[in-house]
Amino acid sequence: MSDLSEKDIEIFIEAIGGYFKQITHEAASIGVAYLAQNAFPMNDFTGLIKVSADYTGALYFSAPSAMLRHLLTVMKETDQSEENLLDAVGEIANTISGNARKYFGENMVISTPEKIIGIPADLNRSEKNYAYVIIIKWKHYSASLVVDIKRIR
Q: How far apart are CA 123 and CA 21, in angstroms?
């Protein structure tokens, strides 16, 4: 088993940066990845993608509802129901993991997104001894991307 390299983590950083640039036509500020053993920074809505095959673990994209509503407005979506906020956070997590899968190859199998409201108690545990946390700032909002993935083959 091995940890992801700095270059591997950069793929996730580029994916989230690219998502905001493409959707909003303005860059988000991406913080430097840091390590967290638990107590990941989570928000109102979280998209979770599990990985398998040569990898194990999960990727989480967590954002406050206000940020998701603003993103929907930018996308000219008027329906800002809880269901649409869940769809948005799931779509972002899926897009990031899909872009990362292009880099890691078909030996990284990704699940369909799980969409979560609130912060489940069992979410703050790492597949490894730690996970990588990346803070994303867009406008005056702050979201987090947690990469809790390890290579097993």
A: 28
Side chain identity at 79, as an amino acid letter?
D
Type of residue found at 111: S
Fold of 6-151: Chemotaxis protein chec (3.40.1550)
Q: Single out the residue of 95, 91, 84, 99 nearest to residue 10, CA to CA.
A: 99
CB–CB of 97/112 below 8 Å?
no
Q: What is the pLDDT of residues 88-110, one digit of tens each?
A: 999 999 999 999 999 999 999 99
* Cβ atoms of residues 135 and 144 within 8 Å: yes
Burial class (CB in 10 A: 0-12, 13-18, 19+), 26: exposed
Q: What is the pLDDT of residues 1-48, one digit of tens each?
A: 468 888 999 999 999 999 999 999 999 999 988 988 777 888 999 999
pTM across the whole model: 0.92
> What number of helices (H) and strands (E) belong to the chain?
3, 8
Q: Of the candidates 43, 40, 79, 88, which has an alpha carbon nearest to the alpha carbon of residue 64?
A: 43
